[in-house]
Amino acid sequence: MNVVIVESPAKAKTINKYLGSDYTVLASYGHVRDLPPKDGSVQPDDNFSMSWQVDSKSQKRLTEIANAVKEADRLILATDPDREGEAISWHVLEVLQKKRVLKDKHVERVVFNAITKKAILEAMNNPRQLDAPLVDAYLARRALDYLVGFTLSPVLWRKLPGARSAGRVQSVALRLICDREMEIETFKPQEYWSIFANMKTPAGDMFQTGLTGYDGRKIGRHDIKDGTEASTIKTMLESASFAVDSVVSKPAKRHPAAPFTTSTLQQEASRKMGFAASRTMQVAQKLYEGISIGGETSGLITYMRTDGVQIAGEAIAAARSVISQDFGDKYVPEKPRVYSSKAKNAQEAHEAIRPTDLSRRPKDVAKFLDPDQAKLYELIWKRTMASQMESAVLERTTIEVLAKGSGKTANLRATGSVVRFDGFLTLYQEGRDDDEDENSRRLPAVDEGATLTATSVDDKSEAIEATQHFTTPPPRYTEASLVKKMEELGIGRPSTYASTLQTLRDRDYVELEKKQLVPQDKGRIVTAFLESFFHRYVEFDFTASLEEQLDKISAGELSWLDVLRDFWTNFSGAVDDIKDLRVAEVIDSLNELLGPHIFPPKEDGSNPRQCPACDTGQLSLKVSRWGAFIGCSNYPECGFTRQLGKPNGEAGDADEGPKVLGVDPDSGQDISLRNGRFGPYVQLGEEAKPKRASLPKGWSAPDMDLEKALQLLSLPREVGLHPEDGKMITAGIGRYGPFVLHEGTYANLSTPDEVFSVGINRAVDALAEKRAKGGGRRGAAATPLKELGEHPDEGGPVNVFDGRYGPYVKHGKINATLPKETDPKAVTLEQALELIAAKAAAKGGKKKPAAKKTAAKKTKTSSAKSKTAKKTDVDASSEEVPWDDAS
After folding, report:
1. What is the CA angle 162-583-147, rounded to 5?
2. Is the residue at 665 inside a domain?
3. Cα 764 from Cα 265, distance rounded (Å)
4. CATH number for the domain that contains residue 96
5. Which of 9, 294, 378, 458 is the most buried (most CB within 10 A)?
6. Which residues are catalytic?
7. CA 79, CA 641: separation in Å to the nearest integer?
8. How far apart are CA 443 and CA 857, in angstroms?
9. Closest Cα to residue 396, out of 208, 254, 248?
């Protein structure tokens, strides 16, 4: 019997149908091992040895695979045809060798670019060995990303509290976004004028010309700087005579774009369908793994992680046949088109993304697909077909017009294009970020020397039009344009762009607003810090050169260990250089670098850093364990603070200080609206510890009035007595939103407004629903999600529970929250003991054994000993740092 290993169960199911009963196809469910998210998983001093960890789910699958291999004659590793696929096969093989189940069994590696019966059977007939250089490239990339993340992130936590992480590719992508935002903020609009003349031919046809020269001087787009000069030229043209100076028509061809690569597919799906990069890859994965059509499951597209633009010869022949059938022979070029990649650092050569069967037209398969799948398949099919169609034939015409009047001359020009043969345009036209329809303007027939007349087009226009404009800043990056820029610079790999962008959003470093990537203040501060103290490692050229070295490793041209040694020597030295740097020095540097953003010039010319509360203090950037904010230099005498900034970097009204909303009718004290480091809030009076209430989500500062402020300050509100025990139910707004509370049980309400109107019946129902779901009163005995066993040193049970703030492990009186995204049912006793020991040490209890110290523990400062760094699972495909902030 033969055992075949692939990544996904969907892929396994499809392939199993093709291979028959002599084969057992099993899924690894992606990577089976990863570097544990703790310090020491990569040891630079031990020749960069790596400690791999198998989680409980993967352990179960590996056991199933090992049991199957014991009974098999041959093991076939059939994971994806790229670096990650090669790495998964290597991991599986390593584990099976350690389990000693291979013995003398034959091991083969097969790759295929499409999940079709023909491709699978052909691959099985052409096995090979594991590609060692490709595995080395994976190991180098994984070690680099780990070392950057687990070395740099703790430095961020110590020197920049509230920062979450940094990463080799993530940080450079973030810098691109932040640099563009700074360009926009510092951009100074420049006035310019455009002048157009609407012309009429002797035959009565109309067309528009633009000014290109005046009085012997060439006029560019931005050369007319003010209205005075524009008015002078306009006056001259209004009394001038016009004649056609020349007419030039040139034939031109427009060629189709190459078939899709990973990055071009992401860009086009974003432009044409509004898909995020991650959504595009999710849908493409489904199309690749297989869709059931007419009772048979088959992959509809080839492998979707590729830099290649070439397609197989049989696919080209099939495309030409379908083009001839659907559009006619004149749309089939004389010779097949051959494309080559222009991408910097093009990865291992794979076929472009194309349909596996080009005779499957989009309309034929749409009924078997969901709407997103149908849209993406149609896009891929059209792009592939168009890439093999005849070029479009255009005629580009330029009409030069000479104007004479008042002893001066002026030159005007009109350009236009006419499609003589639509070619591939009949099927597909590539989207562009600056898309202009060059075929929309067709110029009239006119002879050289013909007299023209300047004439208004309609009652609302003039014959000669002078229009004022102002230059505009470059646009923010969209996901499509950022992917394009990263590929141009050679930063990262197209297959990881989607996860990199998602990481930036998950870290709250950027937000997506109207399809544009807007950097948040947290992201800008991290970028400023890295540019100030680790500039080399966020340089575009450095990151691109590192990618080139990784590609040379995969080609067998460089040693992966040599690359790691060279990098680590310089990088660890740079980290050591700033270990003794004081936080105050970091803040001074960030104040300088972010000054234009944090303290934009005021319209009245006054000092933008002057404190609005005390008038004598100077505002500056400050940090706390919760993150960065703006504070006064006269602290503690002046307690003025405000948020670092508003969305889009706009200066807000927070600089104007507290706004009095009215007087509290009970105490006679002022109620004011203020801005703090956590956002807007209302405050009663000016006592040492005044009563305050933050504005809940959905409430905006401009809409606040005295009535709403009194409502907030009156919380918690008594709703009424519970009918079962006669104890009070209260309503309030907490960290996680509006709630009702009874005897330790919290039940969420829909909106903040409901807090002020909820009645006893609604409250009782909400509490009953919460208790029915397991949200009982605090302190009540709860049923563990998982019983882990007895504590080996102190005795007593160690269990996993589900709490209000998420799952946690418990021993005695110590509760330790599980890291984000950790499966509570997969936690082991060893992991639980480590978390409990860390929590006990943080509370002043027993210290954690030295052998089990984490990277977060080692980087804690004396002012933050009560905090324990959270850890999240490593995402092997993201190339980013698997850490959250210590707060």
Report:
1. 65
2. no
3. 52
4. 3.40.50.140
5. 378
6. 303
7. 55
8. 73
9. 248
Close Cβ partners of 247 (under 8 Å, ≥ 6 residues apart): 397, 398, 399, 400, 446, 447, 448
With 0.85 as the threshold, say if the pTM is over it. Answer: no
The alpha helices in 634-728, defined as continuous H runs, are 706-713
Instruction: Tell me the C-alpha distance between 38 and 270, whole Å.
Output: 36
Q: What is the 3-state secondary structure (H, E, C) of 483-535?
A: HHHHHHHCCCCHHHHHHHHHHHHHCCCEEEECCEEEECHHHHHHHHHHHHHCH
Q: Which of 546, 564, 584 lies at the terminal end of a domain, its last residue?
A: 584
Burial (CB count within 10 angstroms: exposed 0-12, middle 13-18, buried 19+), residue 724: exposed
Whether 430 maps to a domain, the answer reads yes
The residue range of the domain holding 423 is 191-255+394-470
Strands 691-694 and 679-684 come out as antiparallel
Nearest to 171 by CA among 503, 569, 490: 503
For residues 280 and 373, state if they share a domain: yes
Distance, CA of 716 to CA of 692 (rounded, Å): 12
Residues in the chain: 887
Please write the tens of the pLDDT for every residue from 595-628.
Answer: 777 788 777 778 888 888 888 888 888 876 666 7
Residue 30: φ, ψ to 5°:
80, -150
Among 882, 773, 737, smallest CA distance to 820 is for 882
Domain membership flag for residue 628:
no
- The count of domains in the chain is 6
Confidence band (pLDDT; 50, 70, 90) for 775? Answer: low
User: Which of these, 62, 824, 496, lies nearest to 52 by C-alpha position?
Assistant: 62
Q: In this structure, what token pair is assigned to residue 139?
A: 């190991």
> Tokens 């349909």 correspond to what residue?
355
Q: What is the DSSP letter of 739?
A: E
Mean pLDDT of 476-504: 87
Instruction: Output the six-digit token pair for 174.
Output: 């973030």
* Position with higher pLDDT, 469 vs 687: 469
> Tokens 């208004």 identify what position?
456
